[in-house]
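Postdoc handover notes: sequence design on the structure in folder B. Input tokens:
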């Protein structure tokens, strides 16, 4: 191997690693988006968890215990009480094994709603952990910017 090849090899390996990491992030974004749409657009909560969530599911929302069953029950009850509820995806961002979904959540058409960022950790192609940050949409804002 000549000196040019030896100097080029690390750059090629780095580029290949970056391409692989980008592909993994893109796959995670697509998977989390499909999960999110199945839960919040189609209201197929149990099917979504069965398809996309790993057996060990860690929950950071203080209102919901760890595990798949408590999350399915919590969300299913929400949709029973608010069948028109929807979370409209505004953006999806991936960073390594984390995927963030920024949404406008409304219980019905008359509801101003909430701005929510749901953060999911993906491991081996499955969602294994969840955090959320929730902020109500105010009637009057102190600026002309939207929350979305």
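Designed sequence:
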């Amino acid at each position: 191997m000549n000196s040019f090849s030896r100097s080029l090899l690390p750059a090629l390996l780095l580029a290949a690693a970056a391409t692989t990491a980008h592909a993994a992030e893109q796959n995670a974004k697509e998977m989390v988006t499909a999960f999110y749409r199945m839960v919040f657009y189609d209201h197929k909560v149990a099917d979504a968890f069965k398809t996309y969530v790993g057996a060990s599911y860690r929950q950071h929302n203080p209102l919901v215990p760890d595990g798949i069953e408590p999350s399915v029950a919590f969300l299913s009850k929400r949709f029973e009480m608010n069948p028109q509820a929807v979370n409209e995806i505004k953006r999806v961002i991936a960073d390594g094994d984390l995927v963030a979904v920024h949404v406008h959540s409304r219980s019905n058409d008359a509801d101003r709603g909430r701005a929510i960022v749901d953060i999911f950790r993906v491991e081996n192609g499955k969602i294994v952990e969840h955090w959320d940050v929730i902020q109500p949409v105010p009637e009057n804002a102190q600026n002309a910017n939207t929350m979305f």
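Context for whoever picks this up: Residues 3-40 form the longest helix (38 residues). Don't rerun without checking with the PI first.
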